Amino acid sequence: MSSESELPGWNDPRIILFAFYGSIIVILAFCSCIHFSGCKCLVRRGRTEGEGEETEIDGRLYELIPKPTRLLMDYHRHNIIRSSLEEFSLTLAEEHTVKKDGETGDIEANNVNETEHTHVCVPKPGITVHATGDKRDVPKFCSICLSDLDVGETVCWSQNEDCTHCYHQDCLLTWFVSLGKQNSKMKRFPTQMTAQNLIKYKLECPCCRQVFLEPEVPEEKSKKSLVKI
After folding, report:
1. Please, are residues 196 and 218 in contact by the beta-carbon 8 Å criterion?
2. Residue 125 pLDDT level (bands cut at 50, 70, 90)
3. pLDDT at 228
4. Which of 69-83, 124-138, 200-214 has the lowest mean pLDDT?
5. What is the C-alpha separation between 146 and 154, in angstroms, rounded?
6. Are 156 and 83 within 8 A, CB to CB?
7. Distance CA 82, CA 168 (A)
8. What gap in Å lies between CA 210 and CA 150, rounded to an integer?
9. Ramachandran angles phi, psi of 160, nearest 5°
10. Residue 182's Cα: distance from chain center in Å?
11. What whole-number distance in Å separates Cα of residue 112 and Cα of residue 117?
12. Helices 67-85 and 169-184, packing angle to 10 deg
């Protein structure tokens, strides 16, 4: 028998299987090289653009930020929003309580006992707490915690004239911070985070989903680093 007859032919199943798997390995290796070389180009370009300024590609994903740092982000986010919300907040007193008839809506009494009032009197949407006039009566009910708005508690209303809702200040701050966490997912943050980085999302009303507040950060504080990764 000749030596040529002992060699497997191209139609041999072993040769076909070897060629098939070999092709797959080559293709995967080629794709990996293209992927990593592309990532390096993006990082290099991100570092060179902006004349040395840090770009988004240089940041870190929110999910990779250590938990203590994320808690610090929430702390500063809470304080920034609360500072802007002060203009649209007040602590309820007896003079802000109103009792209305359930059927006619007529005012029955002012300065009633806090356990009897049905509404509270607060400024209209978009009006600051220091402005005179333009008051309105809203039901004594917080849609976030499902509790009453009682005397001694701080309530807040919207900066947006089209949003008529009113809430406990603490409830709303908790809502806004949770919105910040939700909007931070799968996003990158620079290693030096400023106030603008922390509140770069829509502060919407829990009920009507309209813009509730647009925080204004003073220019001297907007560029100050609050959190370092």
Report:
1. no
2. very high
3. 86
4. 124-138
5. 15
6. no
7. 12
8. 25
9. -85, 125
10. 5
11. 6
12. 130
CA distance 228 to 220: 18
Question: Which residues have C-beta within 8 Å of that of residue 46, sequence separation ≥ 6?
Answer: 55, 56, 57, 58
Cβ pair 182, 146 in contact under 8 A:
no
The tokens for 54 are: 């840090």
Those residues whose C-beta lies under 8 Å from the C-beta of residue 211, and which sit 6 or more positions away, are 159, 160, 163, 202, 203, 204, 205
Gap between the Cα atoms of 26 and 131, Å rounded: 73
- One-letter amino acid at 89 equals S
Q: Would you state the torsion angle of the CA atoms of residues 190, 193, 199, 202, taken in this order, to the nearest 10 degrees?
A: 0
Short-list 164, 176, 183, CA closest to 215: 176
Query: Are the C-beta atoms of residues 121 and 96 closer than 8 Å to each other?
Result: yes
Decide: 141 and 84 in contact? Cβ < 8 Å.
no
Spell out the residues 6+ positions from residue 101 whose beta carbon is closer than 8 angstroms to its own: 107, 108
Q: In the chain, what are the domain boundaries? A: 4-56, 59-228
Among all chains, which residue has been given the structure tokens 């929110």?
62
Contacts 24+ apart (CB under 8 A), 5-13: none
pLDDT at position 6, please? 58
Residue whose entry in the numeric block shows the structure tokens 């798997």:
21
Burial class (CB in 10 A: 0-12, 13-18, 19+), 95: exposed
Tokens of 127: 């009006």
CA distance 210 to 2: 86
